Every structure is written in C-alpha cells, then in structure tokens.
Task: structure prediction
Amino acid sequence: MTNTIGDVEEANVILLTGSNTTENHPVLSAFVKRAVKFKGAKLILVDPRRIKMADFADIWLRQNLGTDVAWINGMMHVIIKEELYDRTFVENRTTGFEELRKVAEKYTPEYVESITGTPANDLIDAARLYAGAKAGAILYCMGITQHTTGTDNVKSLANLAMLCGNLGIRGGGVNPLRGQNNVQGACDMGGLPDVFSGYQKVIDLGTRKKMEDAWGVTGLPDKPGLKVTEMIPKAHDKTLKALYIVGENPLVSDPDLNHAEKSIKNLDFLVVQDIFMTETAQLADVVLPSACFAEKEGTFSNTERRVQRVRRAVDPPGDSKDDWKITCEIASRMGFPMSYESSRAIMEEISKVTPSYAGISYDRLEEEGIHWPCPTPDHPGTPVLHTQAFPIGKGVFHAIEYIPPAEQTDDNYPLYLTTGRIIYHYHTGTMTMKSEGLNERAPENFVEISPADARKYGFDNGTMAKIASRRGDITAKIRISPAAVRGTVFIPFHFAQSAANKLTNAALDPISKIPEYKVCAVKLSKAA
Result:
C-alpha cells in the first residue's frame, strides 16, 4: 500500500475494486464502512458480484469479467474530456500524459459499456465523483491482479490515481490488499526471482557485489530465476528435476490442477516444508516440519508496509523448527556454513544490506511497528509514499489498450467462472479446516449462480451440479444468489475435495506470470 490502513478513514472518496473486502479482509473492511457511515466518505464499488460492500456504495459498477482496463480508461476519458484532472500534479510530477490522452480518447462511456456492460451514465458519475475528491483512495486485491492483463490493470489504476493527483497525500494512494499474512514481508526479503531484499535487482552489479561482500561469497547469479508459475510446466517436461516448497499448497491453489499434479509427480525429488501435512506434502519425498507464527521470533511486514515484531508464545511441537533454522542446516550440509545466533542477528543483517530496512531494528520495534522505507536509525518511517517525488523521479503514465481475457465462452462452455474466497476459510484450508466451528459454517464447496441462470439450466437451490471446463470437472452444490450476475458463476477455491482450480485457466500475465484465476469458460449439468 502507498498509504496506511488508517488513511482509508481520511479519504473523501474510496474506489474499491477486485476485492470482496468484507469476507477477505474483514478488519480492513471496517475502516471502509466507518469512513462511509460516520465520516461522509463516498464509496465507488466496481465488482461483477453484488458483494456486501455494495450496500455501502454510492455507485456500484458491475463490469463483465476481465474488462478492468476498459472501465478505467473510460473513467480517465471522462476526467480528461471534462478537464477534471489535477493539471498541476500532471505537469509537475508525471510524464507520458499525451500518450495516455490519445489512448483514452476512444474509450467513450458508450464504447466502454459495449465492452463492460456497465451503463455509460454510471461510469460518468463514478469518474466525476472520484475526480472531484480532495483525497481519493484506490483499494484493490486479486480480482485486479489474477488476470492475463493483471499488470495492465494495476498500471491503469496507477494512471487514474496520478491523473487526479491522489498519490503522496493522506487519504489517497493506490493500495493493494495483500492476500496472506506476511506476503509483503516475503517479497521485501527477496522472495521473488529477480531481486535481493528490498527489491534490489540481481542484474545490478553494485548490488551483487554488496551482497557477495556481506555473505563472503563470489559469483552470485546475475540472471533472474523462474517465477513459481514457470516452474510447474518445466517440471512437467522434466527440465526442472526438484522442487522445494515452503508454506504453499499448490495441489489445491495452482490453476489447471490436473496438469499441475502431473507436473509435480514428474519431479525426481520434492521437499515440502510446512506446519501441517497438506495435499502437496503428502506427495513429498521429504517433509520438513516448521514452526508456526506463535512458535517463533521474528517480524511480519503487513499490507501497509508496517514491520512488526512477532514473539514466541508457545514452544513448537515435536521436531519442528523455525524456518530460518531449517534453511541454515540445509545450507551447512550443502557446503556453505550458515549460522546465526538468533532471529535478532538475522534482522541486524537485513538492516545492513537492505536500504529500505536500514533503520529498523528489534529495539525500535519493541513497542510499535515501523513503515518502510526507514533508511536510518533516527528516521520515523514512511507511512505515505511519494509525498515529494517518485523513486524514479517523475511518475510515468502508461497508455494501455484493453485486451480481452484469454478464454471466451462458446456454445460448449457458455458460462464464465470466477473464483475467490469466503470468510470462514483461509486459502487452501490447511489451518481453518481443522476448526470444527468453521467447518460447521462452511462444510463443503458450492457454485453460486444467478436466479436467471438457475431457471435457464433447471437447477434448484441445494442440488448437486457438475461444473466442467476445458481442463477438468468437479461437482458442487448449487447456491442461487442475488450476488451472482447472469452468465457468470462463482466458486470458492478452498476445498480440495472439489477443487475449483481443476477448472481454472493456467494462462499467465506476460510480466508478473500470475495465472488468470478470475476468468474461464465452463458448463453446468446435473450431477449423476
């Protein structure tokens, strides 16, 4: 997030898209609701389902799946045409405006309606409302990123925020809501194939030299590695021989699961490090039991970039160890002696080699978290990014054309499927499905369908249906819901017994390599 969670309550207008916030980020959703209910903020919701947040929205735009670039370009068309944009911000802090203007010109509200299904007048109202805000916050989640055009979607939202001068101010910003705890921290620490900690590029000679000196090694790789979604196909064709999976359960969470399972079974050697025996761990040659959050010392970095301490509350069971201790032992056995006295010692190393964490220490985190970047020990941290300038100087507008989803419906597969989460379960259910109370609330999978489609295909509420895509099929219970839109069904992805990801498309965004979980074509029939 460029801003803080608390900043949401300072926004005059909140644009929320690609996030079922009430169910997926219930604590953060309370900030949005309070801002609307008690502080006069206006909410623009853009979502293909009538989620709970629609009850709080002044404007709800119900777009067709995978058409986000089109409606964002449409809003910018209105804002530019009516000269509602922040001319001072655009002139002083951005480049590429003319290219953006040329692309946005053709995205008239009527043209956008033909793509998105969103009424032209509603789009105009939303554009005027967002552009007229003294401070406008954009909140988004994986409904924006999990597309073959996910990178384009995020860049388009950044375009919109810059166009209206909503970056670098309290109550503004472009704010991704992270999907799991410490996703932000994992990325900060170099859990990506092209960077060291703090997003320092591996291709940069100076950065590599600094890391080599810190670690007492030479010859660190100068080329980015593989992204996770590139590894699975390479396992399928035996180019990749071994895989070490830490805290992930791809046999439920990966797209096109039938193909993913074949790929993982093709490996010569699979290691899984986790706190429970997941579906993926059951296939592993070696399982390394690790400690959970309450059983270890360290830091988490949350969705607003706040680095916070976690402290051991209970001892880890059996032979389970801290993840860092497992890593050190493996490294030492492979010929590189890796030893740290404690997690504090690791944090001290992080601060030495990571500019954005340079001023962060356990002592400073004792009472309160700190937002990075925090470059020096006396720096207070940075709750709001880009207040004076962007890291590259001026912000760059990207002129982006709409590209349809990778898969379209046809006579054989006439419905669109989108996937997501429900409030009672978390990710692949590794932890939540061990809770009796949560399993009582959400014991099995379902397919959410509109009343019109239920009548069309002859389904009653609660009957079992077979859902098939071009990649596989599952069975699930029909749930007729006013939240659903005609022509589109929704299935949660938590349930391994009827895994939605047996249906989803493994087509990838060309930049981020994120799969298109949010759009694929399916057909429904009555289960045998």
Summary: The chain has 18 helices and 23 strands.
